[in-house]
């Protein structure tokens, strides 16, 4: 446009200029807005989206799951979890349950892109208006946003969290299908009673699986995600009914149920089972040891790896046998109670405040182990005349009459009832109304039962009750085994030329220690000596002098080597250790005795058979042998496939059997005759340590070996009368009478090469012919010998009189040295 034309007609030109300038400014402001949006998005990204998981991470996400534990028969018995959860696939959720949660939480779930913009705007406005008031704004979150919040973002109360939640919700919707999102949500959501996910909640509230839930039960679960504590049946039953019926109305409005279904369900009671009605998980010393071993191997939390104990969803097969465990627990508790019977009440176990209404929680937190299932922890609430009101952990109450607490207080005297005061935590037994006072023994002990063929630990009891004391005396208590150590001395002797018929002097034995200490002289428990006797007789009667003499003759280096290779412990080569002065644990002793029953082959005690990950893949196994053909789809009719025996031979198989055979004599004629009437072959050895501070028994049958000790946690004398044969052996007998009742009677199997020969167990001489049972030679038995060690000298009837005189005569050390070795 020229200057002249503008002057002739200025108005149209001006309009063109304005139109041009307006167009330029529009584009410029549009650019400004675009740049502002871009910069804002970048700012939001750096401020809120950084650190959120990527799509690949979301696809790989696995819900934290508890570790599930099964027993030796494959039955579920326990789980290790901080969050009780059972994962299901989407197809396993009943459609009605899905409809209920959608009606209660997110009606437009299948149509929105992850965020309900109307609901989100309302939530932001509500947050703004309530800012500073102390009131919490409504959530306005979709199910996808709840997944984001519960899985990744956290639950802090802020605008930033809502923004991060929305960003992640979009990302989740882009990476997962709606069904996958719902699967995560229904498996993850917290629903109270420490239940995470609908399957776990179904069991917690109704003691059934989700597939078995009724419509009103499904509707109740659907009201819980927002605030489970607001709808507990114990405190807010009416509120729970109203909210449940609201969900039912929503389901009807959404077309998921009919009016008739709605009416029927709305009239139904809640039907929630009490917490204490749920089947308890197996706990105790065994499960705690399993938990420790799993944590040592796989880690504890999700940060420790995909297969961690509390998040990995492991499936663990253990060697735990409920029948054997119950028998061991009851037998040990009975023995502990029996030992302290008549000593009186040991006093209160704790003191709590009962002035308020929170005493049930305080009583539960006191962590009292009552032991027997019929015993209960209780707290004295008040006393009035001849009765005391007591309360229990579930909030219920009962009466303790004075006649139920007449036992004297230990060390003081007087009726125990007179010492009770409000707040005293005690243990009682009763029928629901009147109770009697019980006393938790101060003495304790440990017990282990093992399969001698495999090393599987079938049962373990580490004290009175794991709830009262987590210290596992079966695996952690180092105690002197006393005479239960002697079989390792004699096993070393059998490996070094001696036989069960070898003659050993049961007489005075002293050793020179040093110029300062002088001589150390050993003695038998009874203080008496019996002269020359066979090795077998010495083991059966647990003679100390014969044991130290044997150890001295063959060399203590051989004895401690045998104890070492059998896993008992590493000890210095001092003669006192031949009598059990070294410390060891019950589980080590039981495993070593199991090696005797396993023909001298090494065993490793195991509580866990194998571990699978959440998908069923085997990730660890105790038995690492390869079994060719064990998994064949169909048996081919040939010999059944078996894994090869690859256990290390730690002692000679014939030596192991000889010791086992000798220890059968301990049960038949020696210090463990309390076990003689069990009606099956039993071997074992009793033990009593100096003091006596500990009493022991270890032994068992061909298919089950066990052992136990009793003693105070701070070692002190149990009383001069305490012996392994009179205290520990009867406990094992009580256990075996129940645990072995239905087991087949199996003899101990002798290895190849063993020769059974009739000998006199007192003189060690080979016997020909039959002798009357009431004769001097009623001690004639079949003895196990190695091929090169058969006794050559024989005894006949005419030698009886002369032999009686020889046996009665005191035998000197010089006579022993001339005839030692036991081969005539």
Summary, kept brief:
The protein is of the alpha+beta class. Helices cover 36% and strands 15% of the residues.
The poorly predicted ranges are 1-7, 807-824
> What is the fold named in CATH at topology level of the domain at 83-277?
Penicillin binding protein transpeptidase fold
Largest sheet: 6 strands, antiparallel
CATH architectural grouping of the domain at 83-277: Orthogonal Bundle
Classify the helix fraction into a percent range.
Answer: 25-40%
Strand fraction band? 15-25%
Helices, by number, come to: 24
**What is the quaternary state of this protein?**
single chain
Shape: elongated
Structural class label: alpha+beta
Mean pLDDT: 86
Distance between the termini: 143 Å
Provide the CATH superfamily of the domain at 83-277.
Biosynthetic peptidoglycan transglycosylase-like
The CATH class of the domain at 83-277 is: Mainly Alpha
Rounded radius of gyration (Å): 38 Å
Count every beta strand, where a strand is a DSSP E run of 2 or more residues: 26
């Amino acid at each position: 446009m020229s200057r002249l034309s503008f002057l002739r007609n200025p108005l149209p030109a001006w309009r063109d200029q304005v139109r041009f300038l307006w167009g330029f400014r529009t584009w410029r402001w549009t650019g400004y807005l675009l740049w502002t949006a871009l910069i804002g998005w970048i700012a939001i990204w750096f401020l809120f989206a950084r650190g959120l998981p990527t799509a690949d991470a979301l696809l790989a996400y696995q819900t934290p799951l508890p570790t599930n534990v099964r027993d030796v028969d494959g039955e579920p018995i326990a789980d290790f979890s901080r969050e009780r959860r059972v994962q299901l696939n989407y197809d396993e959720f009943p459609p009605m349950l899905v409809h209920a949660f959608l009606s209660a939480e997110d009606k437009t779930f299948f149509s929105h892109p992850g965020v309900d913009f109307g609901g989100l705007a309302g939530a932001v406005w509500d947050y703004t208006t309530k800012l500073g008031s102390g009131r919490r704004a409504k959530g306005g979150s979709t199910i996808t946003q709840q997944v984001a919040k519960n899985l990744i973002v956290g639950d802090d109360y802020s605008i930033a969290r809502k923004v991060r939640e929305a960003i992640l919700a979009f990302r989740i919707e882009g990476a997962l299908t709606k069904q996958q999102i719902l699967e995560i949500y229904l498996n993850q959501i917290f629903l109270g009673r420490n239940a995470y996910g609908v399957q776990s909640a179904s069991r917690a509230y109704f003691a059934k699986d989700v597939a078995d839930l009724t419509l009103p039960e499904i509707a109740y679960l659907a009201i819980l995600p927002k605030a489970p504590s607001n709808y507990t049946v114990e405190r807010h039953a009416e509120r729970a009914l109203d909210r449940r019926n609201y969900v039912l109305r929503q389901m009807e409005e959404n077309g998921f149920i009919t009016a008739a279904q709605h009416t029927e369900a709305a009239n139904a009671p809640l039907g929630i089972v009490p917490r204490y009605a749920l089947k308890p998980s197996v706990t105790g010393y065994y499960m705690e040891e399993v938990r420790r071993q799993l944590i040592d191997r796989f880690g504890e939390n999700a940060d420790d790896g995909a297969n961690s104990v509390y998040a990995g969803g492991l499936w663990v097969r253990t060697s735990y046998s409920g029948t054997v465990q119950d028998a061991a627990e009851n037998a040990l508790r009975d023995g502990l109670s029996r030992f302290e019977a008549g000593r009186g009440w040991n006093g209160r176990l704790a003191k709590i405040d009962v002035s308020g209404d929170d005493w049930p929680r305080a009583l539960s937190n006191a962590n009292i182990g009552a032991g027997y299932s019929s015993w209960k922890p209780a707290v004295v609430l008040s006393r009035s005349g001849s009765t005391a009101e007591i309360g229990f952990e579930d909030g219920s109450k009962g009466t303790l009459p004075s006649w139920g607490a007449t036992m004297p207080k230990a060390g003081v005297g007087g009726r125990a009832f007179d010492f009770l005061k409000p707040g005293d935590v005690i243990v009682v037994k009763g029928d629901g109304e009147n109770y009697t006072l019980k006393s938790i023994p101060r003495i304790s002990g440990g017990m282990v039962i093992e399969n001698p063929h495999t090393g599987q630990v079938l049962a373990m009891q580490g004290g009175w009750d794991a709830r009262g004391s987590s210290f596992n005396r079966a695996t952690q208590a180092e105690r002197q085994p006393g005479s239960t150590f002697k079989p390792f001395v004699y096993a070393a002797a059998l490996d070094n030329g001696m036989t069960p018929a070898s003659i050993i002097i049961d007489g005075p034995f002293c050793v020179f220690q040093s110029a300062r200490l002088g001589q150390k002289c050993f003695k038998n428990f009874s203080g008496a000596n019996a002269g020359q006797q066979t090795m077998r007789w010495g083991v059966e009667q647990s003679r100390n002098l014969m044991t130290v003499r044997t150890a001295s003759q063959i060399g203590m280096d051989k004895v401690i080597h045998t104890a070492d290779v059998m896993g008992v412990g590493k000890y210095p080569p001092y003669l006192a250790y031949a009598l059990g002065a070294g410390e060891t644990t019950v589980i080590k002793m039981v495993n070593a005795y199991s090696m005797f029953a396993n023909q001298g082959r090494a065993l490793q005690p195991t509580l866990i058979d194998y571990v699978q990950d959440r998908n069923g893949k085997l990730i660890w196994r105790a038995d690492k042998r390869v079994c060719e053909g064990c998994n064949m789809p169909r048996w081919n009719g040939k010999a059944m496939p078996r894994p090869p025996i690859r256990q290390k031979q730690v002692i000679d198989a014939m030596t192991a059997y000889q010791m086992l055979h000798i220890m059968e004599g301990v049960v038949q004629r020696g210090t463990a005759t309390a076990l003689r009437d069990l009606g099956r072959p039993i071997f074992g050895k009793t033990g009593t340590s100096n003091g006596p501070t500990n009493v022991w028994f270890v032994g068992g049958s061909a298919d089950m070996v066990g052992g136990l000790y009793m003693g105070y946690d701070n070692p002190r004398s149990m009383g001069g009368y305490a012996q392994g044969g009179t205290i520990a052996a009867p406990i094992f007998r009580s256990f075996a009478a129940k645990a072995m009742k239905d087991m087949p009677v199996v003899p101990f199997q002798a290895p190849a090469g063993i020769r059974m020969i009739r000998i006199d167990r007192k003189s060690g001489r080979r016997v020909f012919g039959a002798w009357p049972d009431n004769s001097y030679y009623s001690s004639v038995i079949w003895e196990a010998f190695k091929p090169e060690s058969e006794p050559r000298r024989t005894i006949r009837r005419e030698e009886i009189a002369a032999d009686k005189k020889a046996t009665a005569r005191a035998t000197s050390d010089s006579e022993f040295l001339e005839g030692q070795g036991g081969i005539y």
